[in-house]
Amino acid sequence: MILEISAGLLERIHQNGEKSYPEEGAGLLLGRAEATSRLVTEILTLTNAREDSARRNRYLLTPQDMLRAEEEAERLGLEVIGVFHSHPDHPNQPSEFDREWAMPWFSYLITSVDSGKAVDSRSWRLADDRKSFDEEIIQMNSEQ
User: Fold this and answer.
1) What value does the CA radius of gyration of the chain take, rounded to a whole number of Å?
2) What pLDDT is stored for residue 104 in this prediction?
3) Cβ 72 vs Cβ 44: under 8 Å
4) What is the pLDDT of residue 78?
5) Strands 107-114, 37-46: parallel, antiparallel or unpaired by DSSP?
6) Cα 108 from Cα 133, distance rounded (Å)
7) Which of 24, 38, 88, 124 is the most exposed place for a label (fewest CB within 10 A)?
8) CB atoms within 10 A of CB 16
9) What pLDDT score does 61 carry?
């Protein structure tokens, strides 16, 4: 499984994580899905709708966020293919909370943000049995 993304889009995701720090930042990945790969061609940054006290280690995307993303994807001839979010001062691997709320079809790109600086991103996909995540390879492309 491969998640293909441009350096420019990944940089925008990193900037979102840094801007949101010390809270989790989040948004949606738009693009095209193939059998073994996903191509991210646009991102939609969203406001973390989680209550104030939980934003440090949780994010929430609302049904309205999902509807807005679906409409934007359709307008662009794309699909919503995943979620991105940051982990402030925490590794870029899914938490148990992430697993409980994840959907098997989506890619989950997680960026570790240490002391306000985005360090690294990894991508994951929930296994069909919902018991674990499988890591996706992030492949950089030259598109903006």
Assistant:
1) 14
2) 82
3) yes
4) 97
5) unpaired
6) 9
7) 88
8) 22
9) 82
Q: How many domains would you assign to the chain?
A: 1
Residue 46's closest CA among 30, 69, 23? 69
Tokens coding 78: 């794309």
Lookup: tokens for 42: 């646009």
**Alpha-carbon gap, residue 68 to 61, rounded angstroms:** 11
Token match 């995943």: residue? 82
- List the beta bridge partners of residue 74: none
Tracing tokens 């079809």 back to the chain, one arrives at 105
Q: Are 50 and 58 in contact (CB under 8 A)?
A: yes
- What number of helices (H) and strands (E) belong to the chain? 3, 7
pLDDT number for residue 27 = 94
Domain around 121: 2-141
What residues in the chain have per-residue pLDDT under 70? 48-58, 143-144
